[in-house]
Amino acid sequence: MVDDSRISGYYKLSREERVKKLKELTGLSEEEIAPLVNPSEMDMDILDHMIENVVGTMTLPLGIATNFQINNKDYLVPMAIEEPSVVAAASNAARIARPHGGFHATDSGPVMIAQVQAVEVPAPFEAKVKILQRKQEIIELANEQDPILVKFGGGARDVRVRVIDSAVGPMLITELIVDTQDAMGANAVNTMAEAIAPKIESISGGRVLLRILSNLADLRLVNARAVFDKELLGGEEVVDGIIAAWAFAEADPYRCATHNKGIMNGIDAVVIATGNDFRAIEAGAHSYASKDGYGSLTKYEKTAEGNLAGSIEIPMAVGLVGGATKVHPVARACVRILGVETSTELGHVIASVGLAQNLAALRALASEGIQKGHMSLHARNVAATAGAKGELIEKVAEQLVREEQIKVERAKEILEDFESSEK
Ligand code: MEV
């Protein structure tokens, strides 16, 4: 947890200075931060046991998004992503939300769904009622599989049954509703689904095939909102432009895919940094966005004062215990940097970053276009590659952009000019 995530000019610091500041603000020890700062120190033994046939690693840059305030708490947000501009854009949008209290988020609880598919059921509608009649027995059997989860306040809560039509005839789908607490819950609910399968067969008279969680985690939703200041956005015209950009996404799936992809730029980066399953989050997000015809995961409106109110509603199946989040040293450091205590708090942060990311993209698209921002970031990288340090990075980059010549050779010349004029 940090007292204040509002850091102006973090990007202007050298990497060493950024790490120093991060340690100061988060109180992380040298040891805790080491795996993140020096990837070579990462314990290869741990990685070797995470998947099969390991030969090496594939590292991504990890940046820190600044300025986030969510439910009155400040966060520095670690983001692992290969795409330039994403971290800067999220930080910028979070800054624009701060004057009106930052982000506010809530959730529907850490509740997952597991499905048990029964085929060849002689009388599926009758079987549905029989299963519902024995709901309590099924819940108890499921909970026997995970006494620890139950001890911590979680466990199976409910059973739903649906009869669906399919290409191979009717199927009886039993769904177990499970509170997975701080776990993402895939292992817990899959074990429960497998355990109740024989009972479903004996009650229904059918044959059980699949027993697996659903990634359409629509009982594990996070809702987040923020008001973005009209002046900081660039005026009421920009506010209207952003609303029209969002309306375009709502009206057209070709645009909406890109719009939602922009949201996922932010979301996946935090999901990856914290060792969570980004494929599960992607599947949940897009299937939820398609529930009533493919639509935007965000909404935008103008407030009475002319500011921009943005909101997001998204399934958020992330955990803090188990899986890579507990095992991977960098993920553990990222969780410490965030200072989140529960899986739902982590979900609040991730959904807020998604909203911030979307706002930043729409703002750029509805005004100057995204290439300008990309170019100035690219110019900074080129300036740094040419050897510029500290304040000179910005000065050299500005000149490269002005001259519309973003090349390392030219950056070296400009740098030499600056350095000789300073002598
Ligand atoms: C690029 O990764 C993301 C954007 O295309 C999102 C959008 O168009 O809204 C900029």
Outline:
With 423 residues, the chain is of the alpha+beta class. It has 18 helices and ten strands. It has three domains: 10-108 and 220-367, Alpha-Beta Complex (3-hydroxy-3-methylglutaryl-coenzyme A Reductase, Chain A, domain 2), CATH 3.90.770; 111-213, Alpha-Beta Plaits, CATH 3.30.70; 372-422.
CATH class identity of the largest domain? Alpha Beta
DSSP summary: helix tally: 18
Tell me the number of structural domains.
Answer: 3
What would the average pLDDT be, to the nearest integer? Answer: 95
CATH superfamily of the largest domain: 3-hydroxy-3-methylglutaryl-coenzyme A Reductase, Chain A, domain 2
Strand ordering within the main sheet: 3-8-10-9
Corresponding CATH architecture of the largest domain: Alpha-Beta Complex
CATH fold-type name of the largest domain: 3-hydroxy-3-methylglutaryl-coenzyme A Reductase, Chain A, domain 2
**Rg result:** 25 Å
The largest β sheet comes out as:
4 strands, antiparallel
The succession of helices and strands, N to C, reads: HHHEEHEEHHHEEHEEHHHHEEHHHHHH
- pLDDT < 50 stretches: none
Bound molecules: (R)-mevalonate
User: What structural class do you assign from the helix and strand content?
Assistant: alpha+beta
